[in-house]
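ok trying again, last paste got cut off:
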Amino acid sequence: MKYIKVNKLTVLLAFLGTVLIGCSDELDQPELNNNFAGGTDFSQTDDMILSLIGVYQSVADRGWEQPLVVATRGDDVNAAGDQQGLKNQDRYVYDNSFFGSRTLWETYYGDIIGAHTGMEQIERYMEFADDEGIALGNQYIAEAKVLRAVLLFQLSQVYGSVFIPTSSNLNDFADVTSVPSKDEVMQHISDQMDEAIPFLLDLRPNERTDLPGGVTKYTALMIKAEANQELENYQAVADAAGEIIASGKFTLFPDYYELFKTPGKLSDENLFEFQYSDFGNGEGDRVSHLYAPYGPNSWNPEVDGSSNGWGFFEPSLKYVEFMLDRGETERLETSVFFSQKGIDSLIASTPYTIETLPSFVSPITRDGDENTSTVRSIFSSGKHYLPTNQLIPGRTAYGSNKNNIVFRYSETLLMYAEALVQGANNSVMTADEAVNQVRARANMAPLSGVTLDQIVDEKYAELSMEWGKRFFDMVRLGRYDELSFDGRTFTEDKAFVTYHQDQIDEFPILGEIAN
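nice, full thing came through this time. structure:
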């Protein structure tokens, strides 16, 4: 069994949280005008990193429902279980009283404001810093801009028009008279990354020794590419993705199955991931995310006592059929944790039989965990599954110690290829070369003269169950028929989730947009 070493960043996240929360609270106090703000001595410039760590901590500390609100639309995944608001959203029936959309908005904005708080603290430290400290402060502020951009990007993908905070001063929102459009938000994010990139480290995230896995210029380039893809500015996509490719720093992790498990933590493929850790110990402190919503609500784990999941997040039958028809092996095995009920449903609704299905289509994974679920969901997400034989002995929570990858190099390659096919120019490699790198790892035959349809299918196969990427692609490309499946009917006006009534009550202008 392979375990990673204890990570400096996650250690700091665990032990500095209370200190940083205290620092953040003090920014609202009048003492900020003094050298000492509520006990914070800004002349102690070595402590400047604490403000940055606070931003990392808040960005990674996501509630279980928030990634599901971002991800459970699209033909790769179904919302399952007993969360009716989530299930309604998955069918494009938006409920403005659903608690998940309220907490997504409130916590993301709380953490975006927190990022501004951190940047403002760093600026106070820089007043007392020497040239080296000022350079470090500029880097830390740039990192906070990137972390802020991750959240603002996802918020705008979900809601479309959203506010763009420019400081930690909540009075800025007292009498808002307009809300930036999605295009304006995406352009803002792209511009912010241009501001940040000159100050960021020219390293792969896992090359950092100060904060392993922390953001670098390549994280910012990836977010710039993502924002410009939403804007359909394909030349900017090709330029940003091409710079990542030309760096030669990133490679595809050779084992797709293990990429999403312990061996894939901080791999050379990952441009950004939310980091969690048990610190190699079976008890005591941990930095964690609640992965139970993604797991089967009943199972026979290989390691006795390992907790099951809740069955809220289910790969779609459409996706499974698509992958089988393509002859996919490792990517399908990785993405879907089958149950026998799911296999029976597959046989009942397709030409496949128990004899013609591949052997890996089994309720028992290669690591010996058996999905026995017969209610809530018929499949579970394999990308959010951590084999119980990779749990640190003593830990029992579903997926404990698992990171959550947000951006990875295979997506960079596929975005680059699509940009070229959409008319952009770049000479770092051809669209065929980019797509075939991704296909080669999946043991799929190379393509020649790759088309947009083939790239779209490749993204479906490669990026399923990851942050709603399939849904947002289909909306951007206007492929609404793909989203109208299994009794759903998608129309253009369903691209964005309805604002929660609490947000409309606080900002009536949102009601005007919603109507």
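cool. The longest strand covers residues 270-274. The first helix runs from residue 8 to 26.
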